Automatic annotation (TrEMBL):
Protein species of origin: Larsenimonas rhizosphaerae
Ranges of residues in domain N-acetyltransferase: 3-164
Keyword Transferase: yes
Keywords (A to Z) from UniProt: Acyltransferase, Transferase
Protein known as: GNAT family protein
Family note: Belongs to the acetyltransferase family. RimJ subfamily.
GO molecular function, one term: protein-N-terminal-alanine acetyltransferase activity
GO cellular component: cytoplasm
Length: 176
């Protein structure tokens, strides 16, 4: 199972937007990714800043696996960020997002020099909870009405991992 991670750019707009359209049923209620060219351009602008970093994951066959964002990176005494991610159909459930997320987590701790990553997940999103717990994240708490998604304030559980706790599964995943 081969997967690579890379930073999105203007050349990836068509593939990204097609993946979002193909994945509407999978993503509904969990996340609202960019779904128009204008929103994609804004997404690139946001993730071109020092505080945010985005990665796309691509399978060996060239299809997009998903998107992983490292948000609100704070350095200094905190050295922390929030992790957001979503898979694209038909690549969900094949272990590809786990591999890609592992590569991004390693990059967050090594390249971005973060100490802590937090993932906030809606309690009913069993697949996402399973993904982060399989990677070593621990449940830290519950945040009522935490994020506004798809027209509603949604409760989330807070999972976290520190650099000292991280043990990269599968080691080397190519990054472009």
């Amino acid at each position: 199972m081969t997967v690579e991670i890379f930073h999105p750019g203007p050349a990836h707009a068509s593939a990204f937007l097609a993946a979002v359209r193909r994945s509407e049923a999978l993503l509904a209620g969990w996340v609202s990714p960019p779904s128009t060219r204008e929103q994609y351009v804004e997404y690139l602008r946001r993730y071109g800043s020092d505080a945010h970093c985005s990665y796309l994951a691509r399978a060996g066959d060239g299809s997009l696996v998903g998107c992983i964002n490292v948000n609100h990176m704070v350095h200094g005494a905190l050295q922390s960020a929030y992790l957001g991610y979503y898979a694209f159909s038909p690549n969900q459930g094949r272990g590809l997002m786990k591999a890609a997320l592992g590569a991004v987590i390693s990059r967050a701790f090594e390249t971005h020099r973060l100490h802590r990553l937090e993932a906030n997940i809606q309690p009913a999103n069993a697949r996402s909870v399973g993904l982060v717990t399989a990677l070593g994240f621990r449940l830290e708490g519950y945040s009522p009405r935490y994020l506004y998604i798809d027209g509603q304030w949604r409760d989330h559980e807070r999972y976290a991992i520190t650099a000292e706790e991280w043990s990269a599964p599968g080691a080397s995943i190519p990054a472009v």
